What we know:
By secondary structure, the chain is α+β, with helices and mostly antiparallel strands. The chain has a single domain (6-128), classed as Roll (PH-domain like). The protein is built from four helices and six strands. A six-stranded antiparallel β-sheet has the order 1-2-3-6-5-4, covered by helices on one side. β1 and β2 form a beta hairpin. The two termini are 14 Å apart. It comes from Streptomyces lannensis. This is DUF1508 domain-containing protein.
Amino acid sequence: MGQSGGAARSAAPVLGMRCLTDLDEEGRYGWRLVASNGRPVAVSAASYDTHARCRAAFVRLCERHTDIAGGIQHSAEGGGWVWVLWETSGRHLARSARMYERHATCRSSYERFRTMVPELAAVGPELWGET
């Protein structure tokens, strides 16, 4: 990720955010953004064949956040709400890490994530635990 000065670079440690990669049972990678309290905030909506492509997808999401649409929708499992980010083609890129019982709570989580993404774009290796 690009760096735009010392203040922006320190955003991840201040927020305590980490981006982790997970390997699924099919050998594909997905990213997971985790808050300082250990709770997942967002996860990739797609899986990738390599660790490098997975990481690059998260970086692109952060860098192109203004070109990415999103919104709140009913969970596919039913009984709650999730937020989703998608490209103009309609391909889903990211989603909330959990289902929310209330629409307002889901919207608040979505808005916090959208506000945080520009800050994450400027963070360096510490976001990935590489300090």
